[in-house]
Each structure stands twice: as structure tokens, then as C-alpha cells.
Amino acid sequence: MLTNEPNVTVSPTPQRRRLERVLSMEWLGQTFASICWMGSVFVYGISSNGDWLQLFAASFWLVANVASISTAKAD
């Protein structure tokens, strides 16, 4: 059936937008880096307050990356 309606661009759904964000090199790179950073703290051991700060920083970086997925909105 033919119609005379103009082409309408549909915005991606929030789920699609989240998937796109998760598959982006930026998100994957940052998430992988934070996981490696946390892992290095355990490999080298926690022997000072600075080590705890490193672990907290890496953990919060990972949490921020995960939270960015849930706040993704369709443009």
C-alpha cells in the first residue's frame, strides 16, 4: 500500500541506546581498565592506606561506568 506520508526518523529505544553504549570502544576500554586496576591491587596486595584508595577509585570508576548504562536515553 502506498502512502503520501513523509519519511519519519524514529529515535532508537533506550534499550538500543544502552546496547550501543556498552559496545562502544570508550565504554569497553574504561570498564576493562577499571577492572584491571582493581585486579592489580589484589595481585600486589593491600598493604597501605594508599592501596585502599586505589581500590576505591577503581571500584567507583567501574560503578560510574555501569551507572552510565542505566541513564542512557534515546536522543
- Summarize the main sheet: none
In helices, the fraction of residues equals 55-70%
Mean of residue pLDDT?
Answer: 83
Strand content: under 5%
E-strand count? 0
Q: How many alpha or pi helices?
A: 3
Alpha-carbon distance between the two ends: 30 Å
The rough form would be described as rod-shaped
Q: Please provide the ordered H/E string of secondary-structure elements.
A: HHH
How much is the radius of gyration in Å?
A: 20 Å
Helical/strand content category: mainly alpha
- Poorly predicted tracts of residues: none
Descriptive notes:
With about 80 residues, the protein is mainly alpha-helical. The protein has helices at about 15-20, 25-45, 50-70. The longest helix is centred in the last third of the chain and has 22 residues, at about 50-70. The protein is rod-shaped, with a radius of gyration of 20 Å. The mean pLDDT is about 85.
Quick take:
With about 80 residues, this protein is mainly α.
What distinguishing features does this structure have?
3 helices, 75 residues, rod-shaped, mainly alpha, single chain
